[in-house]
Amino acid sequence: MAKRDFYEVLGIARGASPDEIKKAYRQKAKELHPDRNQDNPQAEAQFKEANEAYDVLKDEQKKAAYDRFGHGAFEGGMGGGGGGRGAGFGQQGDFASAFSDVFEDLFGDFMGGRGGQGGRSRAQRGSDLRYNLRVTLEEAFKGVQKTISVPTAVSCESCHGTGAEGGAEPVTCPTCSGLGKVRAQQGFFTIERTCPTCGGAGQTVKNPCRACGGAGRVEKERTLSVNIPAGVETGTRIRLAGEGEAGLRGGPTGDLYIFIEVREHPIFQRDGAHLYCRVPVSITTAAIGGEVEVPTIDGGRSKVKVPAGSQTGKQMRLRGKGMPALRGGGIGDMLIELAVETPVNLTARQRELLMEFDRLSEDNNPEGSSFFSKVKSFWDGKR
């Protein structure tokens, strides 16, 4: 049976770029993988056909020979780029070469992680750390400097982060030759695994540091001073670069992220840059008007005029008495909400005066008069 054109096998044009060839092969490999097509007896043969096509077209010299001579370029030693590979592509070595190029693109971290980056560098970046910090509303208003203690991993002073006794440099792993991974042939698959000797580091330590056990870092509690800017809110995140966990064997340090939580305040409620304050006033002050003194977040006091006839829920605004906006943008306002208080535990004389006041105030309750007028109309309509 005549072989199909390699470009046809991968479903690409003859002028396809190397990236387009690799992308097409990846797609075909996913579609035709025998493990995904156990009910298709032709899948394995088609899978091998795609790998044979890719093995030729990925190589510039072999591709040039194939474009000129076709399949004949690899029969009988013809075509400069194809000699030596010949018609023997069915051997597992050539298949493994083609498939290993995209093995990790297809399977990600399967059996030992993405190739290439595991052991080519012995150093590993330290982890980022998170610290939850609670501040008061007053501290969020002014800004504050806080001292915090963070349990973390720091570079070992005994070995200077190398992991080796006396600070000696690690040596290349004899098992993986510094790659951090090893390959094993299983049928027509080449399986890559993390090197069991060096754990993917690519290097080993002959005499591990006794202080850190060869890790190059030790657990320690660090004390840091953190500047909290004015205007922070719950959920504000502050990044301290390089203040996280030390890297393994001299790797770069991670970052520390401070997450802010602003405590609830007994007097003020916050909404962004604005503050709300609920202020109780006597029924007399609400009726005839007057003044009330209210606190402000900066620790000061402000006098607020209460208009005569004020009702519960009436709001008044004190401009510029709110919270500063983070990173500039001005200062918010403070909103005063009145709560008219009903007196309790009345004396006999107070009750007498209130009853007399009630008899004289039939026309002084506009909201009540309007409500009960509507109620009367509602009842009349039901008859």
From TrEMBL:
The subcellular localization recorded is: Cytoplasm
Q: Which family does it belong to?
A: Belongs to the DnaJ family.
Asked if the Swiss-Prot or TrEMBL record annotates the protein with the keyword Cytoplasm, the reply is: yes
Q: What does this protein do?
A: Participates actively in the response to hyperosmotic and heat shock by preventing the aggregation of stress-denatured proteins and by disaggregating proteins, also in an autonomous, DnaK-independent fashion. Unfolded proteins bind initially to DnaJ; upon interaction with the DnaJ-bound protein, DnaK hydrolyzes its bound ATP, resulting in the formation of a stable complex. GrpE releases ADP from DnaK; ATP binding to DnaK triggers the release of the substrate protein, thus completing the reaction cycle.
Q: What is the name listed in the Swiss-Prot or TrEMBL entry for this protein?
A: Chaperone protein DnaJ
Q: Which residues form the CR-type domain?
A: 143-221
Question: Which species does this protein come from?
Answer: Gemmobacter megaterium
One GO term describing the cellular component: cytoplasm
InterPro entries named among the record's database cross-references: DnaJ, DnaJ_C, DnaJ_domain, DnaJ_domain_CS, HSP40/DnaJ_pept-bd, HSP_DnaJ_Cys-rich_dom, HSP_DnaJ_Cys-rich_dom_sf, J_dom_sf
Cofactor(s) named in the record: Zn(2+)
Q: Which GO terms describe its biological process?
A: DNA replication; protein refolding; response to heat
Q: How does it assemble?
A: Homodimer.
Where does the chain bind Zn(2+) 1? C156, C159, C209, C212
- Locate the residues binding Zn(2+) 2: C173, C176, C195, C198
Instruction: Report the domain remarks.
Output: The J domain is necessary and sufficient to stimulate DnaK ATPase activity. Zinc center 1 plays an important role in the autonomous, DnaK-independent chaperone activity of DnaJ. Zinc center 2 is essential for interaction with DnaK and for DnaJ activity.
The residues covered by the J domain are 5-70
